[in-house]
Amino acid sequence: MGKLKLKTLLEQAEAEQPIELTKEQKASFMEQVRNFSAMGESVYGKGDMQEIIESVRNIVEMARTITLSEGEDWFDNVTVGRHMKSLGESYKVFSKTMMEMKQLQERASAAYDEIGQNLNKYFDVG
């Protein structure tokens, strides 16, 4: 191992010293802490992702049923078939992505709760 230089030790010591905050910075921080729970609405999400997935699935299925049942009277069957296949593939991507988002949202919610619990030990979290 190499020798530590005095300059390096001084730089490390300076980096570890607390930073002096102004009254405005402290007040701003306390206001943010008081409003911490309000941010939860965004973290937890307001809509149910599973419900959205089901609604979109129903729309896709109904679109497929209507367009394919109308047949020659309404649309060109080859074009309709191609579009409905594309619609189905897009739904698969959508559904998979929404489920991944749901898992990430649950993970983010747990981390957010943990942050709130730790902040609440020292500050008045609103």
* Structural class estimated from helices and strands: mainly alpha
- Tally of contiguous helical segments: 5
Integer-rounded radius of gyration:
27 Å
H and E string: HHHHH
Largest sheet: none
Give the terminus-to-terminus CA distance.
50 Å
Q: Quick check: average pLDDT?
A: 79
Beta fraction: under 5%
Number of strands: 0
Low-confidence stretches: none
Helix content: over 70%
* Apparent shape: elongated
Could you please describe the fold and organization of this structure?
The structure is a single chain. The chain is mostly helical and 126 residues long. The chain has a domain of 69 residues. The chain is built from five helices and no strands.
